[in-house]
Amino acid sequence: MANITKWFGYPIYITAIKNFKEINKEIIPIIKDNIIATNSQYSRTTDIKPKELQSIDDNLHLDKRFNKLFKEIERGIKGALLMQNYDMSILEAYITKSWATYSTKDQFISYHRHMSSHYSFVYYPYAEDQGNLFLLDDEAHKVGLNIPRRDPYFTKWDNTNFAKAEYPAATGNLVIFPSMIFHETGKNTKEEARISISGDIMITMKEGVKSEHNIPSPSTWKKL
Questions:
Q1: How far apart are CA 102 and CA 45, in angstroms?
Q2: What is the pTM for the complete model shown?
Q3: Cβ neighbours of residue 46 under 8 Å, at least 6 residues apart?
Q4: Is the pLDDT of residue 112 over 80?
Q5: 212 is a domain residue
Q6: Nearest to residue 121, comparing CAs of 62, 70, 85?
Q7: Most-buried pick from 57, 108, 134, 180 (CB within 10 A)?
Q8: Is residue 217 part of a domain?
Q9: Is pLDDT at 54 greater than 60 in this prediction?
Q10: Could you list the residue range(s) of the whole structural domain that residue 64 is in?
Q11: Closest residue by Cα to residue 2 from 86, 69, 79
């Protein structure tokens, strides 16, 4: 069941991929065969390693071996945009990059955000209580006075004062969120590696539709 919840004013979409068991049987061996775990506290991601050293990189959405998965991810992205009432008769969405992440025991993904896209997503081919996804309010970068959202300054926690939202890293789950939100993962405390696939989404105007405020269609761009 797909749903959207707002945290810190931002919409977070979560759903389960259809036929994820069948899809995962095909893609997990590809990822395992192509990723060498890092010898550090941080997870290995395929968006920062030269493709000549592995057969997968940061364009998994263009890799035919992942076609079934991205057909479902595309369905999820369209569903998330429609649930927010975007007018897709004048807008179009693009996956600009996508990559795999391999997190062995005690590894995690540190606090960060993506600055070159509107939305980001994460899909979990394999994740069973191995470090959840955390979305964080951008308190440190806000201008003006504020009371830190932590103990002991609040008597109880609810959706009016939370500064961190936790989403389960569960096999088959797809989470879509605004790229500007800071996010991180918990540590993988198990022996088996947590495997995830992430990506970025850009929204532009459709070809022939003009807008003062939004990115024009890529069909009008000129390479320099």
A1: 6
A2: 0.89
A3: 34, 35, 54, 56, 57, 58, 60, 99, 100, 101
A4: yes
A5: no
A6: 70
A7: 57
A8: no
A9: no
A10: 3-206
A11: 79
Phi, psi of 178 (to 5 degrees): -60, 135
What φ, ψ does residue 21 adopt, rounded to 5°? -65, -45
Q: State the average pLDDT over residues 196-206.
A: 97
At residue 206, what is the residue type?
K
Band the pLDDT of 156: cuts 50, 70, 90.
confident
Judge whether 180 lies within some domain: yes
Q: How many domains does the chain have?
A: 1
35 within domain boundaries: yes
SS3 annotation, the chain? CCEEEEECCEEEEEEECCCHHHHHHHHHHHHHHHCCCCCCCECEECCCCCHHHCCCCCEHHHCHHHHHHHHHHHHHHHHHHHHCCCCCCCEEEEEEEEEEEEECCCCECCCECCCCCCEEEEEEEECECCCCEEEECCHHHCCCCCCCCCCCCCCCCCCCCCCEEEECCECCEEEEEECCCEEEECCCCCCCCEEEEEEEEEEEECCCCCCCCCCCCHHHCCCC
Helix axis angle, 20-34 to 67-83, nearest 10°: 120
| CATH assignment of the domain containing 36 | 2.60.120.620
